[in-house]
Specification:
Strand order of the largest sheet: 3-2-1-4
Shape: globular
Structural class: alpha+beta
Helix content: 40-55%
Length: 251
Amino acid sequence: MSRADIRYRRYDYGRQLDSLTRWFQALFLIASPSGISSSKLSKIIQVTYKTAWLIARKIRHAMQRADQYDPLSGLVRVNHMKYGYSYYQDAQQPLLIGGAFNEPDELQHVKIKQPDPAHVNPQSRRIAKSGVQAFVDEHTKGLNVSVSAPIAPRHPHLYHIEKKVTSWLNDTFHGIGAKHLQAYLDEYCFRLNLDFRQIPIVGQLLQWCAITPTLIYDELTRDKPVLAVPWHAWGSKAKWKGNYLSLWNAG
């Protein structure tokens, strides 16, 4: 083997080691209680924003994989919730939050899910019964499940989680759009559920990253059905907001 070959192998090994170090840094930062935005992650691990976003998104994919194998069980309560523009109700994303409780009414396990757009009324943006049933079928064991009506008072523990996750999405990421919202909701619940069980997060996340199949960039960015934004019906976001101002002034 020539000296040039030896130098190249050393360079290639060093480059791979440096890349692996960045992945471990990213995993540790995303596992932290507050998580981290891709813009901050890119500065810390010294990669482009696109690379940082892809790394973070792949780690979140492992969190989502873990969520699929862990349905809600026991005494399960399901509430309706929304995320998005606080002043524009018809622009918010309708969600379902489910919690598993023990006998002393202590919260043990949480899931927050976007319904399929086909299960949402586009005008009222309310989730149909079919969407609620889909949540129960896919994310619970189907026993001892109680579902509150959309306008009914929410369980105080679930309402607290709703407020916390909304603040986290807005403060850490300055808001998340409908296309990728589910990944961030699953990230939040992944950390929260391990915290409930007092299980160290980094070790669990590393394990799921190791056994989760690789997800390529094209798969992450492909089109997916999402609930259409309401201003499409008005022609522009400005006209849609203008309608709200007109109603406000009329009142």
